[in-house]
Design brief:
The complex is a heterodimer.
Chain A (H helix, E strand, L loop, with lengths): L2 H21 L1 H23 L13 E7 L5 H11 L5 E7 L3 H10 L6 E4 L10 H5 L31 E7 L1 E6 H7 L7 H13 L6 E2 L9 H16 L4 H5 L10 H12 L5 H7 L5 H7 L6 E5 H5 L1 H4 L4 H5 L4 E5 L9 E11 L6 H11 L2 H11 L25 E3 L7 H15 L5 H6 L8
Parallel strand pairs in A: 1-2, 1-3, 6-7, 9-10
Antiparallel strand pairs in A: 3-9, 4-9, 5-7, 5-8
Helix pairs in contact in A: 3-17, 8-10, 8-18, 10-18
Chain B lengths: L2 H72 L6 H11 L6 E6 L6 E4 L11 E3 L24 E2 L6 E12 L6 E11 H7 L3 H4 L4 E6 L4 E3 L9 H8 L4 H13 L2 E6 L5 E8 L6 E8 H4 L3 H75 L3 H32 L7 E4 H18 L3 E6 L4 E6 L1 H17 L5 E10 L6 E10 L33 H11 L5 E5 L3 E17 L3 H11 L13 E5 L3 H10 L6 E5 L2 H10 L4 E4 L8 H10 L10 E5 L6 H8 L3 E4 L4 H11 L14 E5 L3 H11 L4 E5 L2 H10 L4 E5 L13 E4 L6 H12 L1
Parallel strand pairs in B: 13-15, 19-20, 19-21, 21-22, 22-23, 24-25, 24-26, 26-27
Antiparallel strand pairs in B: 1-2, 1-6, 2-3, 4-5, 5-6, 7-8, 7-11, 9-10, 10-11, 12-14, 14-18, 15-16, 16-18, 17-18
The chains are: A alpha/beta, B alpha/beta.
Chain lengths: ~450, ~800
Amino acid sequence: MKRGIKNTLSMTFVTLMMFNMVACGQDSSQNQDQDQTVEESVGQEEVTEGFSPKYATDMEYKLSVAGTYSNFESLESAIDRFYEYYPNGEISYTFLDDYRNTIGPALAGTEPPDIYVVQPWMYGNPLFQPLFDDAEVLSAPELGINLDCIRSSVKWEMDNGEIVALPVFATSYGILVNMDIFEKEGLQVPQTFDELKSVCEKLRAAGYESPVMGANTSTTPGIGYAFSYPMFAKTVKDDRTIEDDLNNLVPSAGEAMRAALTRLNELVEIGCIDVEKCTAEIEDDYNAVIMRFFEGDVPMMLCSGDVVSGTKKRESKSEAFSANPFRYDFYVAPSGDDGGYFMDSISILFCVNKNSASLDMTNEFIRFLTSEEELGLMAQEKRLITPTKDYSLDEVYASLADFPEERTVNFRDTEILDTAVKQFRAAAYAVVNGEMTVDEAVANYGSIPTD
Amino acid sequence: MKKRYIIIINILMVGLILFIIVKYANDRAVESNLASIASFEKMTATTEQIVANYLEDEQHLCDIWANYINRSAEAGTPMTVDEAISYIRKAKISPEISGHLIYIDDGSMTGTSTTASSTDPSNFSVKYSHINIFENLEISNVNGVVNLTRAYTNPLNGVQSIGFLNNIKVVDGETGNMHDALIIRVVPVSRLEQKLVFLKGEYENVEISLIDWDGDYMIHGKSLKNSNFFEYFKSYNPMSAQEYEKAVDTIRTDIGSMHIKNSKNEDSVIAYAPLSNLDSWFLVAYIPAYELTTSRSIDWMLLGIVAFGLIILLHFNLMILLKFNRKLAVAAEAANQANEAKSYFLSTMSHDIRTPMNAIIGMNEMILRDGKDDNVLMYSENIRAAGNTLLGIINDILDFSKIEAGKMEIIEVDYNFASLLNDIVNMVQRKADEKQLTFKLDVDKNIPRCLRGDEIRIKQVITNILSNAVKYTKEGSVTFSINSTKCDDSPDYVNLHVSVADTGIGIKEEDLDKLFEAFERIEEKKNRNIEGTGLGMAIAQSFLNMMGSKIQVESQYGVGSVFSFDLRQRVVKWEPLGEFDAAFKSFLKEREKYKVSFVAPDARILVVDDNEINLKVFVNLLKETRMQIDTAESGDASITLFKRNFYDVIFLDHMMPNKDGIETIKEMKACTDTPNNKTPIICLTANAVSGMREMYINAGFDDYLTKPIDTKKLEGMLLTYLSADLVKQVDEEKKCILVVHEDIAFLRGVMAGLSDLYEVAVAKSIEQAQTYLKTHEADLILMDYEMPELAESYDGKIIRDHFKEINVDQVISQVNDYFA
């Protein structure tokens, strides 16, 4: 066969193949979608290493998750990934109004959730005791849930050693750092208070009126709490003898606040933070904090991990950030002479309703969820701190990896009750705003107005 | 058509078919999709009606509660809270549904429920202060219209529920104070969801959601992530703010559908419709797009099968085509080779026959020019005629290829009809004599003697017909008849009717059609001993067709045949032919001797030919032009002369050993040190097949002359290419006078007096005179009366007188009078 004819034939078939490919565009796009799904599935298998369905994959099921978030897309994403293994089911997430008061009745009601959210502060409160009483023991070996992937600092064992709640997100307090500004000014993110002072001085010299900003509130994401509470908690951790007095609001226990409040006062006095500017420009302790930070001219923003979780969705909502995006990371606030203090706190946990009508499948879902990868992906999507040992999935929190244990405080290290915490928040707010001196705040512990 | 064009056409046709199928499938699929979507929208509208009716019913039940309680108040016997709750407990049928009665006038938003808390069976108190569901409702003036809350958590049992509201007035049992209160019919969302189960039968993956004005869900579809539909829509369908607002506005105001991307970036369809009689509630039905377009896969499968079939068919056709092409290519190659062989054969035959024919005809021409004896001249004339006929046959064979190629031309010349007949008769008579057949001639004596037409072709046509007649007649006769009639419409033309009748084997009627087909011989087996190529009649018919005529055949099988045709010929001389035998002799006698058309003693020409005889022929044919003719027997020899001498014209043979004419002319053209840069070079060749003239002209020759050489053509060509100043007219020939007288003095005197004007020969005796006349022709013979008679009669050419009695001047006067 002559070359010309071969070429013609080749061109014919190539043309026809292309023609058919174009003609079958819709199918191929569907196929691509399917392929993509397969790829994702394969990728997912890599991500959820070791997970293999325990039950028949065509099992039909219906599960419900009740929680406090009005919106829980990171969980919905995890559910979608679970559907890859068990496609014939439905897991719905329901936000309960007045969760504090409705979760109990819900568990006792006609449509109890299979999985529900608990938070650390609920423990010990009789109102919420049914939540723990009704919880499945996740550490039961027969369930095969790999709880070893959870960081020990957030792994919550009951007194009897059982684990009934799976930490889903962790949180902390610290600063959001505009890395582009630091790079532009040739500065390193400060690790100690001295470095912070030095950096602030240079930033002020560079035209940043308030190198550190934050919400001037008495809430947990507020300036005083975010900067100095970890230091206060570390003080208590180091001397737990004062813990009872603190919880009992004994005025003399207020001395435990002195170091933290003094450092906070110093922060304000040396001009690292312009409180008036913060008050004027940041209206609330969540949305406004994020949107102000996205303006791009704030080197460091004091906040909680919950605030950081709101950044991802608001990037696109900020015209300034959309126009001039920049890299930002979360760091522990450098309040100590040797470095900052990392409050490794649990944000929310999942409990399995042991009375669930679909208990096996519920446990199977929790088994699926309990992996560094799945929990990491959820945390990454929610932009909260993962409860697992691997911080690598979200670079915003990369600074927390290998944080020194001696400067880490977790929920087991202290048992400061809510009333004591509120006293500290109020004291910190008063000092920041000049309403009280440090001495006055220390002296008035137990009687500082909290509302 | 070239193979690639066939392949391309096939491809285009397959492509076109596929395109049409694709388009058809696509159109049907689009129609199907549109129909599916329309059906989906219709289902959504139906669902909306069901939901709206259900909600209206629930609201109506709530209103009944409220009306009953309020009528008591209006009647002046208002119910207490306990009485109202007791009434509702009795009125409600379903245990899933509860009634909540809460005070709204004191802002406490607390009250009593018909059912106890799921955690404390003794606790019927209900508190709505932490459940934010009344923000957008005018709870103080519900006015009986459908008023429902968003889906919220029933504070007593934690079940997601919808509340239907109405205002009531109750009395405080303890204080007796009237209170404005809100009665809430609390219906689990799951109860509403159950109403939508029927949809699963029609659409497997449909998900119904109910959203409020802000997009918050009352019923939340599984695939719709986020707690707010609009946020979900925006998250996975990036668009400008303007586009987003438009889409939201469309969902809020219209009934319809749109394609959206779900959280997996899959194409999905949502149909939307506002709930009737309900402000700010909308039904959104979600379904993956593929479920509405699954029917397309059937079309694509069909398309795939058809496409595959067409490709196989195309492939099969191409294979078959290629196979045939290969065979055709082989056959074409063989045909080409055969054609080349034929061309080579024709070329060689033409050349090899014409080369000796040139010598024969050329030398015969010399005899004709110089011969004096009538018999010799007659023999020579027969040689010339036979030679020309042979040449004609060769030409006919060659020209058969011209006929095939459509290049045959009719060349008209003036010809002597007697000569034409003589040539024919000479050719046929001998053959007839050999077969002892009677050859009868019936020639109309009134046929004009000189006509204009293609003598060679006419001669060949008649010769072919006569030859066939002789060939296929075993005994009897062949009658050749020819007569002429004047053409009425054209006075210068005559119509020749030629007829050849034989007593031969005849032709079957069914074989008549084969008669004029080339290479077709009738009754081949029967006539296998009769020589012939089967070309003759085909050529004859072709020639006659070209001359506007055709052969008519009348035949009776076993009896004989008559072949005839009519031919128009222009008359050159009306002088009648007369009796053919006498006319032929007269023609021979009157045949003008060759006379050279010009002389050019100063012209110098070169003729190149490897054949020595042909060189002699060429030189002799031009002898009387008195040109200076150089000859060369090879290309190399000619190039030497070409470089050395100037020539006015060069004649160069083609087929020569070592260096042929084309190689020689290339070398000549490339030569710069020669005086002959502008000298015309004429190809003198025996190669006379069609297309040769163009070939030689392309090779660089200025003209082309074939052998055997036609003297007239040769001289004509020379007159064309020689410079005018070289050519001179031939002097008028002096009349030849023979004077016979015994007196030498008289002879001297006459010779002296006439030699200036005439060529004078003298003879002293009658014997001398007769000897002279044997080798010379005299125009006038002067003889004294006393001299005896010459042996031959020279009537009209002899003047007798008593020349002793008259002087020389008188003799001269008599001669001049004779030639005057």
